[in-house]
Amino acid sequence: MSLADNLFIDMCKNILENGTSTEGEKVRPHWPDGQAAYTIKTFGVVNRYDLSKEFPAITLRRTAIKSAADEMLWIWQKKSNNIHELNSHVWDEWADESGSIGKAYGYQMSVKHKYKEGMFDQVDRVIYDLKNNPFSRRIMTNIYVHQDLFQMHLYPCAYSMTFNVTQKPGDDKLTLNAILNQRSQDILAANNWNVCQYAVLVHMLAQVCNMKAGELVHVIADAHIYDRHIPIIKELIQRPTYPAPKVTLNPDIKDFYDFTTDDITVENYQHGEQIKDIPIAI
Hints:
single chain, alpha+beta
């Protein structure tokens, strides 16, 4: 069993056993058939993944690690808000006729801001500080920009990353840790997808900044299971589990902007049967 499986199973059990229901309340999400999409939810979930021990992919079912990383690179590397530059279809429901999702996600990463050292967008500022000021307590990104919310087709769910560097005694390299803040998460559809893509990000940034990957802490304000997902989750967490897969990066890449999904290698990924046609609330 992977450590990620343990965390996922415990989280789901806690939501199902101790969560609160939104049934009958006024809710924004709905199913494609027009019915309100209610949830059972828990407030303030915090999961810690030690990336130095294993890659945090669950084995209860397969997480498409390279596709998840591709979406992360679409936001962090391409800094794009157009689905025509994304290889998966996870954003199709929120794109307009031109393919744009509005001033969301990658758009916010592309905006340059003035610092005393010059003009940087948020990604370049993180890389600059990790290389030049690694013990700063101000290395973070935030894409929940209130002045632009009305021009976003979906408000950001995973909206902030905070990076923190430590020096472990006896290590020749610094350790890069990160906190992923998420206001809301569909546990079945998105939990391990987000965990895997931001784990890849931490590994990539650590490599190009000559560091080791440390902890990824995932903070979810509203961790929820949709009503139509409850039987799927109950079956999923009863499945057999396997050791975590081995995920490595091409060691020759020294520039974050040179990474592609071809530079990610996934080995020995045993997993349960994939769940097809998961209903997605919109």
